[in-house]
# Entry
Amino acid sequence: MRIVESIKEMEELCKSSSDSAVVPTMGALHSGHVALLKEARKSEVVIATLFVNPLQFNDSSDYELYPRTLDEDINIFNQCKVDILFKPSKEDILRPGSFQNISAGYEGELWEGKFRKGHFDGVLTIVNKIFQITKPRRAIFGTKDIQQVALISDKLGRKHNVDIVSVETVRNSDGLAFSSRNRLLSDKGLSKATIIYNALREGVLECGKGSSPEMVIKRIDQILASEPDFKKQYAGIDFFLIDGTKKLVILVAGFVEGVRLIDNMIYDTHTYEKYSASL
# Structure
């Protein structure tokens, strides 16, 4: 694996590849990232990026606390047969006048955007610059951040002629979605956080019964309220355009041990049958 820190060097390397896939990350890698890198391996050249993006944090303390595990990450990138790891400095990527601010618009003010002002503008601005530098044919993202995937696809996919590929959320044996922020939880906290998965699963089952959106949310809220140490921020239902198809998605966000966690579940025949069969 070649590790590149210079933007100029990265641009030179990417001129010659016509079949590359990029996996943008902020490090603190886990099994979800491994699934993204596995999908990327279907392309001739796999590029991973590692940059903790300050523009997407509306709380500077959250940015400082974000897990940084460089040695572990490099080992995982190597194991996943990444060809090029692009690891730019904050000063280089955010050099004044070197990047274009991208607005997420109205859609970026909903759900996550309502509670994290400017978050999606920051995401899109840096992903736009990554696409400019790496010039990939495909870009791989996980559906755990489904609103992010939809916005990147809408705002940047056609702009850069990049196929935005989504990969299903990876979960542990208790259903908890893998997240870099899980590292900040105690063992008890990890156990309590599974209430999010339980609530989403119940929401899928309620949708499958033909219940109204209001009844689905009521059922989700009942499950979430059964864990007193979970502090809900929002729970809702919305449609997102993913891989060219409009998907009905159930979303939950909240706090366990002061750590903010998000998750979602797409409702379709497959997920309903999967969870109803386990009853």
